User: Fold this.
Amino acid sequence: MGRILAALALTSSFLMLSAPLADAAEDAHWQVTPCPSGSKALWLPRVDKFGTELSCSTDEARAAAVKAAVDSGSPTRMMNVAIAFAQQLSDKSLTAQSPCVPGAKGAIGDALGTCVAA
Assistant:
């Protein structure tokens, strides 16, 4: 558990101290897709490879995915958990008017966001 917290702290500090998007396209905007009732946009750790995915889910399902990753003892899966938490934290300030890079994904409130070129 200590390794997860250390990875989360390192990733979070990097995200908070990084510069704003330099490659944000002037004509790009967020396409917002609401999640079904009872779910919200959450970053989830991948199970089979490095990375995360953004989908409509519940807090309970996310907690189960995090627990499974931690219980697996896999360093890759535990790093995925840290990255998912950092992405969720980073998206807290994201709005439909935020600058973006085409193809980027984000949790805009409880909805899914995809950056598209105008």
Confidence is low (pLDDT under 50) at residues 14-21. Residues 46 and 52 are 5 Å apart (CA to CA).
